[in-house]
Each structure stands twice: as structure tokens, then as C-alpha cells.
Amino acid sequence: MGFVFYDTETTGTNTSFDQILQFAAICTDDDLNEIDRFEIRCRLMPHIVPSPGALCVTRIRMEQITDPALPSHYEMMCEIRAKLAAWSPSIFTGWNTLGFDEHLLRQALYQSLHSPYLTNTGGNCRIDILKIAQAASVLVPDAIIVPVGDKGKPTFRLDRLAPENGFNHLNAHDALADVEATIHVARLIRDNAPELWADAVHLSDKASVATLLNAEPCFILTESFYNLPYQFALTKIGHEPGNAGTVLALNLAIDIDQLRAMTDEELAAWLTRSPKPVRRIRTNAAPTLQALSEYEHFGGDAAGDLLERAHRIQADTEFCARLIRLSAKQDRPASEFVEEQIYSGFVGRADENRMAAFHLAAWEDRPAIVEGFGDVRLIALGRRLIYEHRPDLLPENIRAKIAAKIAARLAGDGYEKTAWTTIADAQAEAVARMEQGNGDEAAILDAVVKYLADRAQVTRILSASC
Question: How many Å apart are CA 206 and CA 246, to the nearest integer?
């Protein structure tokens, strides 16, 4: 199976409320030879305020993202989905894609009335080159050079690591350049740590992950926190309630008898410690796993002790059930924002058919399709798409309601605290960056400040009319 390396440049870092401005991807064969590439940009959505800092990092100018000649976000996402579907099935990957870019991609597909799960359905799998590089730094330390950051600690920033490993990354933070840099690092890991690379590719498939977790009483999980990789010797105790795709595993660096003697209250408190004694392993998220027998650090008596402890824990099904019950996540209150409702249930078959019909229909026919959705999330998203592209097709009351909601969101009116960037937030950020005196950012920030002032005036007028 081949690979799809992709990257996004965005309006900010909030994966629910920011948007993709640039998307780039390169399709390769299974030996990382390029087959095809794709790049596209879009204009700013009317309800999004870009972070001045994000624009400075990516060097994206306001005149670019407000250019009416660019496709809309919806139009861009239709092209992206078509291209990625044509490249499927593949292993989808990039630099920190599982931590960031995929969340943006899922949101963008969802908000454009496409299925958000393109990268892990239909035979597609996922890995993350950042996670593999972090694992390589401790498991095969000679595979890549990890540079030291400004604070004297290892850094896995792509714009620092790729040049340190021989890639000419002059155009860092451009989506296509970052994809090329990621492929360069991936090839180094494949060549210098072939077993680690093979394991990562093998475990891109959730069935392979599940098989390993079921077959091995003790296994090693490598995870990174603040760029420092850690290894945990774990044993599977069961699945997260209501979620067969998430395995719960207990850290074996414990005193089992001490845990058994605890009350439920004491054990529940102990389970909140950091690092978490019970790790959640998502089988479809390409975890970095090794069988205990393949991990050289735990040899001889140490390995035997871990295996004995793992067998004791797994044999005590009552204790495992207690750990699972006390580790269960508490349900969060439902969010009022449609963006944060993305995981509030799967779309039904009838609505999937209506989504497909929406994309094939003329704009004049889309309002009727939207009003026929059974899922209220899709109605809200569909109305917003129509408002952005053809507001004249909406009834006056619905159009006014959407306009009022956008105005309130841009201004932050009625919200004690917002997860998204408001106009006032962006203005304060722009002023703070201008005061730092970075001449390279001056032109970008000047244009941002002017845009924000114009947008604030329009928002005030819109709010007054509502």
C-alpha cells in the first residue's frame, strides 16, 4: 500500500474553530517514490478571524485569503476529498498529522457535509512521522539527528529537524514544502531504522494493533511528552466502556498488592496520577508498540518479572474490571457549537445519501435538501454553507439568525470566554507582535490590522441591524 503525505496551513491552532487556508499532499508508492502531488488554497470563511501570529508564521497575507478569485473553503474541500478518494486506499501520514492536521481535515470535511473519516475508512490507514521520529530518537538513536532547541532541549520542530538532517527547508511553513521535508525524514528513518519503520507501517492497520495487544501479555508503548520519549511496560486489562477501538492497559511499574488493598476512592485518586497508570491505546491511531521480547532494555530477570506480573493482573478479572470502571471517562455536557458536535454520533444512511445529493445539486436546489436532513447538525452546517455562497436562497428569518450568530461570534458578544479568535483577540495579538518590532512581519500585520478594523465596523453594523 502506498502513502499520502499531507500538510495544512491554517488560521490558527484551534482544531475545532480555525480553518485550513492551504492544503498540500504528495502520493507515493510503498517505497516512498512520488506518484502525484496536489496543492490548493482557499479564501477566508466569513465567520473566522485569523490569528495574526499564524499568518506571520505561514507568511500568508490578508490579500491572499480575501481574494475572491480563490475557491471558497467548501469548494476547496470538495476538490481535496475527490483527490484523496482517488488516491485511496493509502496510508495517510504527515508531521504531527494525528496530533493536529487530521483534526483540521476532519472538521473541514464535516463542515462541508462530507464524511469526516476518510483517512481511516475504506481500507485507509494512518501513521504519524513525528511520532515515529520521536520513537527513533530513543529506540534507534543513530537513525536521525535531533537538534537542540533554543532552551537547550531536543526539538522535533520540522523546520529545525529537517535541515539538520540534510533537507534544504528554506520555505518552511508552506504546506507543500513541509510535505517534501516530511518525506525526506521518512526516507531517512526507513533507511536507517528499517525494523522500526516496518513495525510502524504494520501497526498502521488497527487490526494488526489489536492482534498484538491480544497476543502479548506484556508490551512496550513509546509515547512522547514535551519532545521527550518515554517507554511504558504495559498489560492489557480490557476496553474502554462503549469503545471497542480503545484498549486500556496498566503500567506494570506498580505494586499490585498495594493497589488491590485500596478503597475505590483511593484507587480512583491514584489513577489520576501523571503519567497515567492506565494508558488509553487507540487501535486506529498507529501507536508505537513492541512486544516485550523485541525490546532489549527489559532483558533477563526484568522481563521475567514483568511477564509474571502481567499474567497475575490479567488473571484477576475482578481487579481488571474495577480498574476499568474507575478509569472510565466522564461524559462531557453536549456543546452548543456545531463544530464541537462532530463526534456526537454517526450520520445515518439516509442523511449520507442526502449529503451526496447536496454536492451534485445546483445551489438553487440545495436548501430543500438541507431542510430534509434528519440530523440537526447537518441542517446547521448546510444552512451556513448556503449563507456563505447564496444567502438569497435562504428565508429572511433564517438568514437574519445566521447573520446575528456570526456577528456575535466575531465580536465575542454573549460569551464569557471563547475558544475561537475574536476580532478583539486578533487586534490585541497584532498590536503585541508589532510592538516586538520584527520588521519581516510589518507588512503582514499592517494588512491584518486594517482588515480587522474594517471587519469590526461591518460587525457593528450587522449587530445593530439584528
Answer: 10
**Could you give the C-alpha distances from 255 to 13, 161, 172, 265, in angstroms and in order?**
40, 40, 48, 18
Rounded distance between C-alpha atoms, residue 102 and residue 96, angstroms? 9
Q: Reading across the β-sheet that carries 228-240, which strands appear in turn?
A: 278-282, 243-251, 228-240, 219-225, 288-291
Q: Does position 295 have pLDDT exceeding 90, yes or no?
A: no
Judge: domain 3-194, CATH 3.30.420.10: yes
Given pLDDT bands bounded at 50, 70 and 90, which one contains residue 371?
Answer: very high
CB 81 within 8 A of CB 109: yes
Domain with CATH 3.30.1520.20 in the chain: 205-327
How far apart, in whole angstroms, are the C-alpha atoms of residue 340 and residue 406?
16
pLDDT given at position 145:
96
What is the Cα–Cα distance from 403 to 459, expressed in whole angstroms? 9
Q: With CA atoms as reference, report the closest residue to 366 among 381, 377, 345.
A: 381
CATH code, 205-327:
3.30.1520.20
Model confidence at 298, pLDDT cuts 50, 70, 90, reads low
